[in-house]
Each structure stands twice: as structure tokens, then as C-alpha cells.
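To close the chapter, one final illustration. This time we ask the reader to focus less on the individual chains and more on the assembly as a whole: which components sit near each other, and how the overall shape emerges from the parts.
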Amino acid sequence: MTTALLTDHYELTMLQAALASGAADRRSFFELFPRRLPAGRRYGVVAGVGRALDAIEDFRFGEAELQMLSEERIVDDRTLAWLADYRFHGNIWGYAEGEVYFPYSPLMVVESTFAEAVVLETVLLSIYNHDSAIASAASRMTWAAGDRPCIEMGSRRTHEWAAVASARAAYVAGFTASSNLMARLRYDVPTTGTSAHSFTLLHDSEADAFRAQVDSLGRSTTLLVDTYDIEEAVRLGVEVAGAELGAVRIDSGDLGVLAHRVRAQLDDLGAHDTRIIVTSDLDEFAIAGLSSAPVDGYGVGTELVVGSGHPTCGFVYKLVAREDDHGRLVGVAKKSTDKISIGGRKYALRRLSPRGVAEAEVVGIGQPAVNDGDDRVLLTPLVKDGEVVGREPLKAARQRHLRSRGELPLVARQLSKGDPVIETVHER
Amino acid sequence: MTTALLTDHYELTMLQAALASGAADRRSFFELFPRRLPAGRRYGVVAGVGRALDAIEDFRFGEAELQMLSEERIVDDRTLAWLADYRFHGNIWGYAEGEVYFPYSPLMVVESTFAEAVVLETVLLSIYNHDSAIASAASRMTWAAGDRPCIEMGSRRTHEWAAVASARAAYVAGFTASSNLMARLRYDVPTTGTSAHSFTLLHDSEADAFRAQVDSLGRSTTLLVDTYDIEEAVRLGVEVAGAELGAVRIDSGDLGVLAHRVRAQLDDLGAHDTRIIVTSDLDEFAIAGLSSAPVDGYGVGTELVVGSGHPTCGFVYKLVAREDDHGRLVGVAKKSTDKISIGGRKYALRRLSPRGVAEAEVVGIGQPAVNDGDDRVLLTPLVKDGEVVGREPLKAARQRHLRSRGELPLVARQLSKGDPVIETVHER
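The assembled structure is written out below.
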């Protein structure tokens, strides 16, 4: 499916006017970057890179798209002809997926003609703004959860395709699984799930329901124990499945208190290996609050898919430099914006202490003056002469995230509001 | 494209266990409803109905989906065979699109076998929770804007397909247009757009850029005037396009002060009909705050697509009644939830005063005891024996929203936090 119309109307009218003025072919640099982190957040997480590369490859105007643009007179014939042949021929560098970021991190640098780059603005921003918001929230949750697995189950609380992207982004940021089957088909994200309250209510008794579930899904299944009375359900679950019962899930009430009670009961019943999964309106704070409770896994729904208070990142995509009539590259910027964003192709380094702890985000134009070897280069080639070169397995992004987050000063793990944990240094 | 895997894993494992236990075929009623409005909101707006009907028709397990479910051993062969033949044969009633809603409004009532209804849970909730969150925010914005048009331009700040649904939902709730071209192709939502700062920066001077835009897009275009100096840009715009200049757009700064200044300047230049469009981080409060400024249109981005603080609705989809072995319908409910949600097929009425002002949301089971003629019936047939019967043009939803919102007590228009404007009355 083409991504070409996941685009703001003005990208195409600008294109038309630029084709007419002759400026459309000026070599240009666009940059995708955040001016700030969401208030109080100490770091952000880049996600959506792989999806963005797919979207660039799928950005083609087919018959249906061109017909609509023509019939509705959105652009003129010259522009239609140009769009019919569209493909991106330029170069893109960017932060690799899973990397952490800070204010003014140049997450993506796009070099091509103005025309080829400007039309990608909307879809690139949509993907990065959404997926990174989810990954940034997810990372705080998995860090708070420590060694305990986090399972993404928020599909029902967000747009049906945003749900798929959310499952993917959460996986990048350390979630172990999702409930979303399309994320499994499309991105190989592991999925899990057993039953809901409706399954218990469908049967004449909880015993009937538990027997039906264990018979069909096996003793290692997870029984939902809070439809009626938790203590009775736990007793019944072990009666039905034996001590091999995989897990019980608690989806309501004071999860900390209940987890302690259920653990004691399970142990009394000899079900020492039966795990306890909790799943009621969790966010990173609730997860942290349950760290001393005997919980074996967290299912996170709504707060993951809404970015735990920050459902979008506020990334922008700005023209930062373009050729003039003499072929010289000229830095450009809107008057009222921070002049920091001028310039051509950026570099970006994570400055590390000799012990490997992140100390600064170093951003500049051209080549870095000094790289003493401890600095880590952040921009990698994603597209070269129109060909995608930055594709990688999702697991690589997942591993990168752990490494990148692991470099941050420990204060990054604090959930309280604060400034970015490292400063962004603009080199000239 | 099939919607079948936009589904939580547990829907299918439950299905497997219910097919095995024999309970899968029990006639069941599921209900999709909110337990509350988002904190402080006075009413909500139903959107996504048309999309949900599409999703039900497209809910088919094709080869790719079945192969994945089989290879990854997510369900057994019997379940795979059942899914291969899946189509929904039941009945669905619901609030029509654009209707306002309140706590416990039975937005959708699904009657079918347990098996056929349970698998639709995730995708129906995704669509309703997302689209209604956007429409609910949009309605506050258009009400605050009064007769001035609101234009949706938030695509870049949300998932690329959520953007399309957002444009659609905003249109239902009174927005006049969107920037999103896919929303135009797919849903006939009007779109608009002219140019961004990058277009001005691409050219050697603002004069070059304005001339290029006016030459290509005509004098009725909207010029973006805040790239460098607003006063100079307004002067230049009228010089280039004449008094026929369609509009100027201001995207930064103190919009109220600037609108007054720009209006005075335009009038001085004889451009009395040139409109002023403002577009910087607007929400319903900013729109209301600009009501006395000479603004002719509002472009709303981020705050629209994130639901202005409430990006999801918290709708749930609950089994409320099902057959027993004797074919009798039994009301069911989780112990800890409000017993209000028990029962079979609901009715819902908007109780209206003789002057047509909404007084209560009346919800009950079966047939209403009394309907004095002033009450408005809220549940309409959406699907009958598996056939979609509730499809309608999007404009019908848009008109319905205006009528439905117009019935509310005037306090509903207040943006300050408060209780739902009418009470939900549960009839027994």
C-alpha cells in the first residue's frame, strides 16, 4: 500500500509552486529533530526508523492517487507528471532505532532536491512522532520493571494501526511481548494472551471456565482470577491445573496487597512456580510502586499507547540549508526560531566518559573538530542515492536501546520530573 | 486489507477454549460503553461508526493470517477452520455517528454467538476509542470557534493512519477541512493547504517566494507571513497579489495582538477581504481566547490529534448477557464492576424538555416503559443478520452532530471542567 497520500495538502501545492519557480531542484538539507524533550522527561527514545524506511520505499503515486489529485484539481498537470515518476534519489542519515536522544539531536538528516525531500515531511514526522513517543514511555516502564517482563496490551485504547506500531515501539524499548497479532505477523513481535473476564462469564461457573481453559490451553496457561472472588479463584485454579499452573492474572484492586496475598496462597497450595501477572491501569510509576510486591510480570495498556502523558514528541522537519543559484550551500532558518538549527549536514556524537558514561550530546555541522575515541558517532547511513541501506532486524534496535540507555547517568532512571540527563552541546 | 489480526491474542485463545467447551455458540450480548467521561468533560462525541462497519466487513482471515496463526501455533486446527469461515452473522445496534454521549451510554450493542462477537472486541474498541476521543476534542474546538472555520492540520503529530481517522473524526465534529490528502481520497473530507516556511526559505528572498506562490496558486492563495518580519511580509503580500490576496497565515507569536495589527495593516492597504488564519499550537482554550481578535480561521494541529489532553475514551466491550443451557438469556457481570452494566439488549433515550433541551440520558433493558414523544431514540440498527445496514454519508454524521450538540443545555459549551451536562438515568 502506498504511503504517498499520508501527506499534507500543502506539501504538494508548495511542490507545484517550486517546480514553476525553478527552485524545486535546489539541493537541500532537511533535518528532523526535537526542540525539547517532553516536560520533565530525562531522555527520549528513537523509534519508527524501520517503518520510516518502508514508508519512503512505498511513497509512490499510483493511478488512484493521481486521479484524485487531478480530478480535484489539487495540483497542475506538470506536478502530476512529476509525482507519477516520484522516487526518492537522495541520501538520509539518522540515529539508529532504539538510540536515546536529547534536545536538538539531529534524528534524521535528508539530503536531496527540495522537491524530493519536502513531500516526505508529513509521513516521516507522523511515524517518528508517534513511535518515539511510545518507545520513550515504554523505556521508562521497562527500566522501572527491572528484570520483570512488561507485556504490551494497549491495542484497544488507540487507533487500530497505531496499535501495531505501538507494539513494535514497545518491543524496541524492552517490552518482552505484545497482545497484538498484526505486530507479530508484520514485525515478528512475540505475542501472548489467554482469556478475559467474558470467558469466565460465558460459562455457567468459574470452575467450568477454568476447566475449559486448562483443557484447551494447557496447565501452563494464565488464569484470570478476579472475575468473582480472588481467593476462591486461586484455590480453584490450582485445583484444576495443579501446581503446574503457569500464572494467575489480577486485573483490579490494590495490586500490591493482592499480589502478596495471592503469592502466600499459591505457596501454601504448593504452586511455588505459578507466576503472578498484574494488569490494571499500570504506568511507570505504578510499576515502580510494585517493585517490592511478589509480581512476576506487568501488562501495560492505556498508558503505554498514549505515551504516559506525552502521546507525541513534537519533532519538526525543517529546511536547514539549500543551494543558491551558484551552487553554494546556504544555511537558512525562520527568523523567530533558534538559530541553532542552521547549517548543512550535521554530525552528532554521544560524548562518553572514560568509564563509558554519557556526558553530553555533541551536535555540529560538517566534521567534528575532535573525537577522542570515547565519543560515539550517532548518525548512520539510512538511505544512499535513494536505496535503503539502514534496514536491520528489530532485535538489533532492541539490543541497541539497552546499550544506549545503559550508558546514561543513573539519574536517568529516576521517574521524577527533571531536566535532560545530559546537555546538548552545539559545536561551531 | 483485512482487519482480522488487529486483534488481541487472547481473543483467539478464548475462542479456542470456548469452541472446545461448547460455549462458543451461546447467544450473547456484548456492549461497548464508557463508564465515565474524561475528567472535567461535559459531553462526549461518538465517532468511528462508519469505520467500524467497514472493519467488521473486512474482518476475514485470509491465507497469510491463517498461515501465521498455524505456524506459530497460536490456535489449534479446529479454531483455524472456524476462523477461515469467519463472518459476522449477528445484529448490531448503536448510537449513530456524531451523536453525543454520556457515562454508560450503550454506544454499541452486539448480539450474536459468543464466538462471533468476542473476536471483534479489539478492533471495535480501537476504532471507537480513538475516533471518539478526537471528535470529542474537535467538538469543543468548533463550538469555541463559533462561525469561524476550524481546519485540521495535525497529521504530522500522530500515527500516519491515525491521522487519516483524525481528519475524518474532526470533520464529523464540525471542522471544515483537513490537511490530510488520504482523508480526502478515502472519506471525501475537504482539504486545504498552500505553503510552509521551507518554501519561503528555499527562495532567495521572501519576494521571490511570494511571487512564485501567487503565480502558481493564484491571488486567492494564503501566504505564510511570519518567516522573517510579519509587517514587511504583509506589505509584500499585498504588493504581489493585490487586494485580492486570499489570506495570510500567522504561525507564531502572540496571535491576538498580531491579528489586530495585521488586520489594521491589511485594511490600510485596501485588502479588506484578505482573511487572517492563525495556526500555532491552538486548542479550544486558545480558540476561545481569540474570539475577540479579527481572526477568520483556525488551523489546529497537535491538540486535536491528541484529543486535547484525552487521547483515548476508555470505552470497554463487555459481555452483559448470554444464553444458558436452556436457551434462557442470563445477565452477567464481573463482581467488582458496577452492576449497572448487566442485562440484555439495551434501549437508550435522550430525554428532551418540551423545548427540545436535553435533560437526561435514559438507559434500560428491553423496551422503554414510557416514551412521551419528546424522548429521542438513540440506538439505531447498524448490522442486521450480518449485513451492514447503518452506513451513511459522512455529511449525515456531521449534520447529526450539530443537531445533537445543539440540544444540550448551554453549560455544555463551557470549557471549564465540570460534570456531564446531563445525568444518566438507569431504568429498571
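Chain B has two domains: 9-134+318-426, 144-309. The longest strand of chain B covers residues 315-323. With these observations in hand, you are ready for the problems at the end of the chapter.
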